[in-house]
């Protein structure tokens, strides 16, 4: 089985820091927007925890994970082999 591509954990951290440090302060005067940003932060934290859980299941099952840094990941093993 090929490694399962998943976002690198740093992606979650980057988005969370942006939302917590910049977005939240930008909407600090609007309770409705502040609530929406807070819900988004909660959702992203849950997604990060859920991915960590998936990674633990894969590790237990001996399935490799390929943490991706972008969607432009190039397959080098078979993509460049001539026919």
Chart the SSEs and their pairings.
Blueprint: E1 4-7, H1 9-26, H2 31-60, E2 65-68
Name the descriptors.
single chain; 83 residues; mainly alpha; two-stranded parallel ribbon; 2 helices; 2 strands; 10% strand; disordered C terminus
Record field, number of beta strands: 2
Helix and strand run: EHHE
Helix-strand category: mainly alpha
In angstroms, what is the radius of gyration?
Answer: 18 Å
Average per-residue pLDDT, rounded, comes to: 88
Strand content: 5-15%
Largest sheet: 2 strands, parallel
Q: How much helix, percentage-wise, in residues?
A: 55-70%
Low-pLDDT windows of residues: 76-83
Number of helices: 2
Distance, first to last CA:
23 Å
| Major sheet strand order | 1-2
Overview in brief:
With 83 residues, the chain is mainly alpha-helical. It has helices at 9-26, 31-60, and strands spanning 4-7, 65-68.
What does this structure look like?
This protein starts with a strand and ends in a 15-residue tail after the last strand. The chain is built from two helices and two strands. It has a two-stranded parallel sheet with strand order 1-2. It is 58% helix and 10% strand. By secondary structure, it is mainly α.
